[in-house]
Amino acid sequence: MSEPVEHVSCLIIGSGPAGYSAAIYAARAALKPVMVQGLQPGGQLTITTEVENYPGYPKGTQGPEMMEDFKAQAERFGTDVRWGMATKVDFTGPVHKVTIDDTKEIHADTVIIATGASARWLGLDSEQKYNGFGVSACAVCDGFFFKGQDVAIVGAGDTAAEEATYLAKICRKVYMIVRKGEMRASKAMQERVLKTANIELIWNSETKEIIGDKGVTGAIIRNLKTQEERSLTITGFFVAIGHKPNTDIFGKWLSLDETGYIKTVPGTSKTTIPGVFAVGDVQDKVYRQAVTAAGSGCMGALDAERYLADKKTH
To answer: pLDDT digits over 72-119, tens only?
Structure first.
């Protein structure tokens, strides 16, 4: 190690709504939290433009601005917010060791993991070009902006089916692009999609290109069996092919589910290691909203505070 070891009471890894909320509560509880922001300071909300469903912003706000507000509030109470990324952890002993940027080691009495999840993308250049300008990975967050318009959604699982039916209530028409000749979604969800009149299923197909000007205006879809191409006129393009939780460095130490999400004791943020807590999208594959992430961040800080208090009394 090229830098001396630092000892902290509470280390927060990650800086989205969950991480910042944990920081606000931990700082107010005099835990002197240190936050390592990670690869994407502010989390997924920094690639979202309008946020209109977070309480307290009656006119809506921009995702990046909202995360700056969260950060300022955490710093106001004394959170030490730092650049850097956790690259390795060692949870063998009572003190938890976390390596930052492969060079600095921090020893922490408690660790709150708020590393979030990343949306899986199709890998098209045009998808990234129009991300936030018609391309979205969250129908619940962004569907409202496409009220009465024609949109497309890619995916075949429960989330895609749920988001397609959600969009169908708001949008005029929803094209659902499915790679195979069947869906992976549960029978109940499939039935719901099939019974929704304004959802058109496009089977055995993939997206070749998303077209646009300032925002999305269409998409070119290719049939994988016939190689025929079809143009869709749409203003919104939703990707619902899953999320990948950012848990690679924790797999050896913590209990993960089959898709890599950290398992927590129901109703708490506690992991299988005492003193290590998981909050936000890194442990939540159901709701995945800023407001639920913030709520779980609060839980993580309270759980950490109680853990430290119990250690003092024993």
So the answer is: 999 999 999 999 999 999 999 889 999 999 999 999 999 999 999 988
Domain membership of residue 291 as a residue range: 6-118+243-313
Q: Which of 10, 101, 109, 138 is catalytic?
A: 138
The question of whether 69 is a catalytic residue gets the answer no
> Looking at 80, 90, 109, 141, which residue is catalytic?
141
Active-site hit among 109, 142, 284, 303: 142
Does residue 125 sit in the same domain as residue 235?
yes
138 is known as an active-site residue = yes
| CATH assignment of the domain containing 70 | 3.50.50.60
Beta strands in the chain, from DSSP E residues, in sequence order? 6-13, 34-36, 50-51, 61-62, 80-82, 86-90, 96-100, 104-113, 117-119, 135-136, 150-154, 173-177, 199-202, 205-212, 216-223, 229-233, 236-239, 243-245, 276-278
